[in-house]
Amino acid sequence: MFGKSSKINEFRLWGLLFTLFGMGLMILGTAGIVFWGQAGKIFAAIFMVIGMIAMLISVGVYFWAGMLSTSATILTCPECGRHTKMLGKTDRCMYCKTKLTLDPQQATDLDDTVSIDEVSQPQS
Question: Quick one: 30 exposed, middle or buried, by C-beta within 10 A (0-12, 13-18, 19+)?
Fold first, then answer.
């Protein structure tokens, strides 16, 4: 993926990129009508179809990220104290980008390790 961000936010970023790419292609396609008149309609139709496919991929990515988000482990970040969602054994905090793990073998400092006992639903 791109870098220092939580996995769910990375999936959402890919969805946003596909949305912007699809919309950009559709706008570029309509510009073909402006520049070439009637001959640009074929150009516009091709780019509209490709843009719609990119938008449908975006919908699929956002749906997938939403489904992953519903089954993610919710825990409290030891650094910022906010509730964050975690996919897999290691992830990053959605807010402060701190590396988190549920596996004590991968933790660098046992005092900062987020244990399974701390995993809970957000408290009010």
Answer: middle
Q: For the chain, which residues score pLDDT lower than 70?
A: 1-3, 107-124
pTM of the model: 0.73
Over the range 42-64, which residues count as b (16 or more CB within 10 Å of their CB) and which as e? ebbeebbebbeebbebbeebbee
Sole residue written with tokens 């104290």: 81
C-beta atoms surrounding 15 within 10 Å: 20
Contact of 83 with 122, CB cutoff 8 Å: yes
- Scan for tokens 């520049």, then name that residue: 35
pLDDT attached to residue 102: 82
Phi, psi of 96 (to 5 degrees): -105, 0
Q: At what angle do helices 7-36 and 40-70 cross, to 10 degrees?
A: 170
